[in-house]
Write a structure and sequence with these properties.
- This protein folds into 2 domains: 144 residues, Rossmann fold (3-Layer(aba) Sandwich); 154 residues, Rossmann fold (3-Layer(aba) Sandwich).
- Helix content is 44%, strand content 17%.
- It is built from 14 helices and 12 strands.
- The strands form 2 sheets. The protein has a 7-stranded mixed sheet with strand order 9-8-7-6-10-11-12, with helices on both faces.
- The radius of gyration is 20 Å and the shape is globular.
- Bound molecules: glutamic acid.
- The site of glutamic acid has 11 residues, from strand 3 and helix 12.
Length: 424
C-alpha cells in the first residue's frame, strides 16, 4: 500500500465539464441560441495551469498544479472561488468557472465567471504549507487578477484566512488592494454577513420554493450532506424556520435521528471533536445513505456528482436543493425530473455567496462598511427577485424545469452582453 501524499491522483467518474455543458446546451436550445454565440459560450476565454512548488515541513519539495479558468467576462470582471481539493483538476475548474458565468448573470451581478483550484489534499498539510502554497499560487496567477479583471473568493477547503494570504501576497507586488479578493476576514475589509451568505441564500431558496409549492416549513424534515461553511450555516439558519434536521454529515461520515437532531449538541460536538460523527443521541449514517433518506428537503452541500445515474432512482426526498456546485449529474437530473422530484439548481441555490462577495467588492472600492442588517436585507431582495425571474420564465415556457429556466436566463443575459460588446 502506498502512503497517502498531499498530491493525489483523482479518479473522475464523469467529466464535470461535459456535465455542465449538457445543462448549458439544453438552456441554449430553450432560447434558440445561435451556433456562433454557443461556440463562444461553451469554451473558456482563458485557462492557465501553473506549477506551485512548495517546500514542505519535512524539507522536501512537492510540486502541486494550480489552475485559474476565466470563462466569460462579457458582463464584468471574472469572479469565482479558489478550491483546494484532490479533484480540482482542469476539467473540474473549467466546469465550475462556466457555472459562475451563469450564476452571476442569473443574479444580475456585474461580473463574469471564473474559478481556480489547486489539486492537493489540504487535510494532510500543515498551516504553514498551505500558506506557502497559497502565496506561490497567487504570485503565479497575479498577472491575470485585478480589481477590474478577476476577483477570487473562498470555495471548498479555502476560507477567510486563505483570502487574507492572497490579499497580502498580491499587495506585496501591487500595493494595498482589498478589493482583489472577497470573503476576507472582517478586520481586513471583509463584509459582515459574507461567512454566512451562501447558507443564508440556500435557506432563502428553500423558503421561496416552499412558497412556490404552497408547503409549510414548520416540522419539515431535512438532510444535509456536508458540514463545511455552506452546510453548517444552512443547518443553523434552516433550524430557525422550524424545520427538523434528521441527518447531517461531513467527510468522516454522518449522523441520523428520525426524531430530529439536537443541533445545539451537534454544533458543540463538531466544535470539540472536529466532526459531527459520534455525537450523542444519534445513529451513524454513511454519506451515500444520507442521500437516500425519505425527507422533505435533501440538501447536498459538499461535492459535485454525488447524485448520479446509479442512485437517482433511489432518492426518496421531495425536493433536492443544490447547495454544492453540480451535485446532480445530467443523467440523474433527468431521472429525478421524471420521478417528480423537484431540483433547485446550484446557480440559484448557492448564489448567496457570490452576491455578498459583490457587496464586499463594492464596499472595498468605496472604502466603506455596510451594517450586517443591510447586507442581509439586500441579499434577500436580490435572491427573491431572482427566484421571481425564474418563475416568470417557467410560466412562459411551460415545460422548463427550474434548472432549464435558471440556465436559460443566465445564458440569455450573457449572450446579450456578448452581442452588445460586438464579440461577433
Ligand atoms: N465559491 C463560491 C461559489 O461557488 C463563491 C464565489 C465568489 O464569491 O466569488 O459561488
Amino acid at each position: 500500500m502506498t502512503e497517502p501524499t498531499a498530491r493525489p491522483v483523482p479518479l473522475h467518474e464523469t467529466n464535470p465539464f461535459l456535465a455542465v455543458t449538457a445543462f448549458f446546451e439544453r438552456a441554449a436550445d430553450h432560447i434558440g441560441l445561435d451556433e456562433d454565440i454557443r461556440e463562444i459560450l461553451r469554451t473558456s476565454y482563458r485557462e492557465i495551469s501553473v506549477q506551485v512548488p512548495v517546500r514542505m515541513d519535512d524539507g522536501d519539495v512537492t510540486v502541486f498544479m494550480g489552475y485559474r479558468v476565466q470563462h466569460n467576462g462579457a458582463r464584468g470582471p471574472y469572479k469565482g472561488g479558489i478550491r483546494y481539493h484532490s479533484s480540482a483538476d482542469l476539467d473540474e475548474v473549467r466546469a465550475l468557472a462556466s457555472l459562475m458565468t451563469w450564476k452571476t448573470a442569473l443574479v444580475d451581478l456585474p461580473f463574469g465567471g471564473a474559478k481556480g483550484g489547486i489539486q492537493c489534499e489540504p487535510h494532510l498539510m500543515s498551516e504553514g504549507e498551505i500558506q506557502r502554497m497559497t502565496r506561490r499560487f497567487t504570485q503565479a496567477i497575479s498577472y491575470i487578477l485585478g480589481v477590474n479583471r478577476d476577483i477570487p473568493a473562498p470555495d471548498l477547503n479555502t476560507n477567510a484566512q486563505t483570502m487574507a494570504w492572497i490579499m497580502d501576497a498580491y499587495g506585496q507586488r501591487y500595493g494595498f488592494t482589498p478589493a482583489i479578493v472577497t470573503g476576507k476576514p472582517i478586520e481586513l475589509g471583509g463584509s459582515l454577513g459574507r461567512d454566512a451568505a451562501t447558507g443564508r441564500g440556500v435557506v432563502i431558496i428553500v423558503e421561496e420554493t416552499a412558497r412556490h409549492l404552497g408547503r409549510p416549513l414548520e416540522g419539515a424534515t431535512v438532510a444535509i450532506q456536508g458540514f463545511g461553511n455552506v452546510g453548517s450555516w444552512t443547518a443553523r439558519l434552516i433550524t430557525e424556520l422550524g424545520c427538523k434536521i434528521v441527518a447531517v454529515s461531513d467527510v468522516r461520515g454522518g449522523i441520523y435521528n428520525a426524531a430530529g437532531l439536537d443541533m445545539t449538541a451537534v454544533f458543540a460536538h463538531a466544535a470539540e471533536t472536529g466532526s459531527v460523527v459520534g455525537c450523542a443521541g444519534t445513529e451513524p449514517v454513511s454519506n451515500d445513505d444520507l442521500l437516500l433518506l425519505e425527507v422533505d428537503w435533501l440538501i447536498p452541500a459538499a461535492l459535485g456528482g454525488v447524485i448520479h445515474a446509479r442512485n437517482a432512482e433511489k432518492i426518496a426526498a421531495k425536493v433536492v436543493v443544490e447547495a454544492a456546485n453540480h451535485p446532480v449529474t445530467p443523467e440523474a437530473d433527468a431521472i429525478l425530473n421524471e420521478r417528480g422530484i423537484l431540483v433547485m439548481p446550484d446557480i440559484m441555490a448557492n448564489s448567496g455567496g457570490v452576491t455578498v462577495s459583490y457587496f464586499e467588492w463594492t464596499q472595498n472600492i468605496q472604502m466603506y462598511r455596510w451594517e450586517e442588517e443591510r447586507v442581509n436585507t439586500e441579499l434577500r431582495k436580490i435572491m427573491t427577485k431572482m427566484f421571481g425571474d425564474v418563475e416568470a420564465f417557467k410560466d412562459s415556457h411551460e415545460k422548463a424545469t427550474f434548472r432549464e429556466a435558471a440556465f436559460a436566463l443566465g445564458v440569455q443575459r450573457v449572450a446579450h452582453a456578448v452581442r452588445l460588446r460586438g464579440y461577433v
